Amino acid sequence: MSEYLFPPPPPAALPVSGQDARFPANRIFCVGRNYAAHAAEMGAEVDREAPFYFLKSAHAVRQSGATLPYPPGTRDLHHEIELVVAIGAPAFRIAPARAMAAVWGYGTGLDMTRRDLQARAKDKRHPWDLGKNFEGAAVFSALTPARDFTPARQRIRLEVNGALRQDAPISDMVWSIPELIADLSHYYHLAPGDLIMTGTPAGVGAVAEGDRLAGEVEGLEPVELTIGPAQ
To answer: Measured between alpha carbons, how far is 168 from 73 in angstroms, rounded to an integer?
Structure first.
């Protein structure tokens, strides 16, 4: 039996609505500029030829109800509310017409962003990792099995301290869920445990220490987060 030099980190896992079993989180694929209004507010245009992505690591995963210390290295932490797709079956080079068979369920997520670091990376044509991939940067609700939810025109919303910041129908997504799964499956062997954060609508903005975030996609479990003091 192999021995480790030090204890490996515990696996990231998310609760499931109405069940004791948990969903083991693997890779987190994030879709950029998938709502035209959000792309416009960021001074960008939607790429209509193909979606584009960035990734978050498992160390970024936090569950709804967590307190996230204001992260280091930034003075401009932003919220982005997203519909999350949980993959439950292998998918490789799959067609859009067959892509939904790979979906295990759905959730509500927060893509937390060090916006100043992301902007600096954009200016220098560098990767977005410092802005997007840090401890606590991916906050998830409990997941809902696909049999209990069908994406259509449900609204996705986020409030900060009770004030509405983001609100749009998920049907405003430029690239649909089957299109995203099919496209990703031409670059990766998608596997059970993978999560897809499908993009955020307009209204993103800064949060500060002490702020309380509450987001939802109609029909799914809500996601909540408190911003704690910087460490």
So the answer is: 31
